[in-house]
Amino acid sequence: MARQNTSNKEEKKETKKLVLIEFVKPHTPYIKGEVAGFNKSLAEKFIKKGFAKEYKKSK
User: Fold this and answer.
1) Distance from first CA to last CA of the chain, Å, rounded?
2) Domains annotated on the chain, with CATH
């Protein structure tokens, strides 16, 4: 059985991180104002297409 090297483990950890976005337009099944977490690439697609913006927690 092959052992995983450290960089593969770090890559997997990175892909598990979620980016929080807030929907500014409805996009089924999400509604305007809803906050959801997605992997970085999918979150960027929603933002680029104008459906969402990066969520900033209010203090």
Assistant:
1) 49
2) 18-59 (3.40.5)
